[in-house]
Amino acid sequence: MDEERLARILDLPKVELHLHIEGGAPPAFIRGLAQEKSVRLDGVFNEDGSYAYRDFVHFLSVYEAATSVLKSPGDYARLVRAVLEESAANGVIYCETFLSPDFCGGGDVGAWREYLHAMQEAAEAAERDMGVTLRGIVTCIRHFGPDKAKAAALCAAETAGDWLVGFGMAGDENKGRQRDFAYSFDMAREAGLRLTSHAGEWRGPSEVREAVEDLRVERIGHGVRAIGDAAVVDMLVEKGIHLEICPGSNVVLGVYGNMAAHPIEKLREIGVKLSISTDDPPFFHTTMRREYAALARTFGWDEEVFLDLARGAMEAAFCDKETRDKILKRLET
Ligand code: ADE
Ligand code: ZN
Q: Is 198 helix (H, G, I), strand (E, B) or coil?
């Protein structure tokens, strides 16, 4: 691919639907907070300052250790600002981020309200200053179990609205069954929240089917393992389920050996709705621009493909119609 064409692709306006707020924390930001609060963080960083982890399960525990220095609504406001600065620098104009009441007030509704308020204010300031729009999705954490998920769902239901627009699940897919979390997803749906769940990142196509059938989600985080069963892929196409695909995350964590082995192009050709996200960008040494560069180089995608994906992401976004239309207009240019 010639460099001029690649530069045009990298400069396109972007939409990101799958970004964990703590996972977007630059390592220097976490180190700075740890110093301010005199918290020792053992085993979180490599010598070069990057995050240190061996595999997915270890990544989750390092993620939680890094998150332990975020102790107040003010810390989360600063985090939102830092994450959105990076988003804006990458040309992202609309983003949805995963927020966890487990980390923000321990599942207490009153405390959660304060965290949410601080994050929303920081997001509104960033929108004014940098032109990037953010919306929040509460996530429960699968390996924390169904009881903690109920507390997270209650926090979500109590604060559902124009800004807090969705409910979902992250965490270790190898723990428990999705149906154990159906009560929480039902509560969130009844509160008017839209639903997504991490599934088919590690476990096979049946996990993707269970997300749709047991949790009744309309989007799936990752979902790439659906490719192993044509019937599951057909079901995704028929029902118009949207996959939030994070190619760089999948390659760095070893779900696929390299970008060329990633099924994103096959899924797209088959007609599965999907979009591109970074997941936890500093952990995976990625950014939206790097994702675009890798996909353009590997699959030869041109500007029209990337613009189409951004428009499709906006169609699957959980925000209200007015916000969607405003962002779609910005994608026209
Ligand atoms: N939490 C943060 N990143 C995650 C991922 N890629 N899968 C599951 N849970 C996560
Ligand atoms: Zn994720």
A: strand
Determine phi and psi for 96, rounding to 5 degrees. -115, 135
Structural domain range at position 166: 3-331
CA–CA separation, 66 vs 42, rounded Å?
10
| Beta-carbon-side half-sphere exposure of residue 165 (alpha carbons within 13 Å) | 18
pLDDT of residue 140: 98
Ligand nearest to the CA of 59: 1
Count the residues in the chain. Answer: 333
Using the mean position of ligand 2's atoms as its centre, give its distance from the Cα of residue 80 in Å.
Answer: 17
Question: What's at 146, amino acid-wise?
Answer: P
183: phi then psi, degrees, rounded to nearest 5: -55, -45
What does the block give as tokens for 189?
């749906």
Q: Which helix (H) or strand (E) holds 243?
A: strand 242-245
Q: How many CA atoms lie within 13 A of 148 on its CB side?
A: 18
The CATH number of residue 78's host domain is: 3.20.20.140
- For residue 1, the model assigns a pLDDT of 80
Q: How many domains does the chain have?
A: 1
- 20 alpha carbon – ligand 1 mean position (Å): 8
Point out the residues that are catalytic. 201
**Cα distance between residue 111 and residue 247, in whole Å:** 35
- Positions in the chain short of pLDDT 70: none
Residue 244 in contact with residue 169, Cβ under 8 Å? no
Answer whether 140 contacts ligand 1 (Cβ < 6 A): no
Q: Which ligand is nearest to the CA of 253?
A: 1
For a ligand 1 pocket test, name from 19, 21, 280 the mutation site with the most ligand atoms within 8 angstroms of its C-beta: 280
